[in-house]
Amino acid sequence: MSQNRYDEFGTKLVNDAADIEFDCPNCGKTKIGRSAQARSLGKEYTCPSCGFVGP
């Protein structure tokens, strides 16, 4: 995972096995970071490149 990455809520992603970073599933242009907490709560995210909204 890249250094100094943050999820959509401004939480810094650390090298926690539950935190993830992936390419936008729609455009593939932007890395999206998701904390374990955001994923477990099913919080939505929005890709800043294409506007895709995911769970």
Care to describe what's here?
- This protein has one domain (5-44).
- It contains 1 helix and 6 strands; from the N terminus they run ββββαββ.
- 13% of the residues are buried.
- Helices cover 11% and strands 29% of the residues.
- The mean pLDDT is 81.
- It has 55 residues and is mainly β.
- The protein has one helix at 36-41; strands at 5-6, 12-13, 20-23, 31-34, 45-46, 53-54.
- The longest helix is centred in the C-terminal third of the chain and has 6 residues, at 36-41.
- The strands form 3 sheets. Strands 1-2 form a two-stranded antiparallel ribbon. Strands 3-4 form a two-stranded antiparallel ribbon.
Overview features:
two-stranded antiparallel sheet; 1 helix; single chain; globular; mainly beta; 6 strands
Instruction: Flag low-confidence runs.
Output: none
Mean pLDDT: 81
Secondary-structure element series = EEEEHEE
Taken from the alpha-carbon principal axes, the silhouette is globular
Tally of distinct domains? 1
Number of helices: 1
How many E-type strands? 6
Beta-strand level of the residues, as a percent range? 25-35%
User: Order of strands across the biggest sheet?
Assistant: 1-2
